[in-house]
Amino acid sequence: NMVTKGEYEHFMLKEIFEQPNTIANTIFSHLSDNDDRIYFEGLEELKKQLSKARRIIIVACGTSWHSGLIGEYLIEELARVPVEVEYASEFRYRNPIVREDDIVLAISQSGETADTLAALRYSKEQGATTFAVCNVYGSSMARECDFTAYTYAGVEIGVASTKAFTAQVAVLTMLAIAMGVENNILDDNRAVALITELRHIPELVEKTLQTDKAIEKIAKEFLDVNSFLYLGRGINFPIALEGALKLKEISYIHAEGYPAAEMKHGPIAMIDESLPTLIVGTNEAFYEKIVSNAQEVKARKGTIVAVVNEGDTELAAMADYVLTVPKVDELLQPILVAIPLHLFSYHIAVMKGCNVDQPRNLAKSVTVE
Ligand code: G6P
């Protein structure tokens, strides 16, 4: 069962363009057609445990850790269950407190990452319920956990994760909705509205992918920069981290993701003509705050690349370069914002002559330390 690049120059690009399908497969594998009910094996039992759980501890590494941070926003917002997100590598070595009424949720594309697996095994020994969101059927994590919800992203070959990430976020969104309904936090109307919008996400991903040529053109302007700052707020903060990580991984340009509101406590000191800033400005609730962050960057002569919703005027007018994504419920926005950020890094890396599918020093899954 050989996976080939087909018409694409790289696996990474192919995998980015597969997302309308991989997200649809993931969503529709967990959603019944007739009645908007979310489903995965063991979900009924898991929901009971989740509603009793004192807290959920998410453990993950790399890009999967960023989906974990988005999961934290989603679960706390929609289901009001406390969530902690941990780097598996830190968690396993610091004598963490894990109790029997905790649920430890591992997020992993491969299901084999050594640190994440070790964190899970430790948690199991402490008596916690273990739960995996992973992409590989029958992987170690899927076998060893009490519950597994699969992502259906298909085989991912590019070392830097793209389609597995958006599939993870889709599963976490559905999990948060299911928990919110179970816990009577989320009323049926809001749940149905979110699920209805989720059903349309694959089409909107398709639409976002059509901006690829425009993204490539913007990417060309940044081949010689030494460093990049990525800012986002709320549920888009983890997306800023993910955009920065992807740029580092494949183009070897230093990039730092930061919560936009924290900029004044450090990164603002670095801003001048030579340090460009990418600002994710799609959050409705914080929009004016994001605009004022952008003003602070402009006042210091920083170049701005803004990711905005279609129809945006204010932030788009201030930015030097604009990437657009369709507007959806704020909680669903990260999946769409991931697309231009991944493509932006991809094009910079390709134009710099980097090996995007196999970046130096990185491995697809780190199964040994
Ligand atoms: C490696 C890969 C990353 C990935 C991380 C976690 O560092 O290069 O792309 O996000 O491992 O992998 P996992 O399989 O656990 O999601």
TrEMBL record:
Keywords, sorted A to Z: Aminotransferase, Cytoplasm, Glutamine amidotransferase, Repeat, Transferase
Coiled-coil region: none
Catalytic activity: D-fructose 6-phosphate + L-glutamine = D-glucosamine 6-phosphate + L-glutamate
EC number from the UniProt entry: 2.6.1.16
CC annotations in GO: cytosol
Subcellular compartments: Cytoplasm
Residues covered by the SIS domain: 46-185, 218-359
Single GO BP term: UDP-N-acetylglucosamine metabolic process
Active site: K364
Principal location listed in the UniProt entry: cytoplasm
Any GO MF annotation of the entry: carbohydrate derivative binding
Subunit structure: Homodimer.
Function: Catalyzes the first step in hexosamine metabolism, converting fructose-6P into glucosamine-6P using glutamine as a nitrogen source.
Name this polypeptide is given: Glutamine--fructose-6-phosphate aminotransferase [isomerizing]
Residues shown, of full length: 247 to 615 of 615
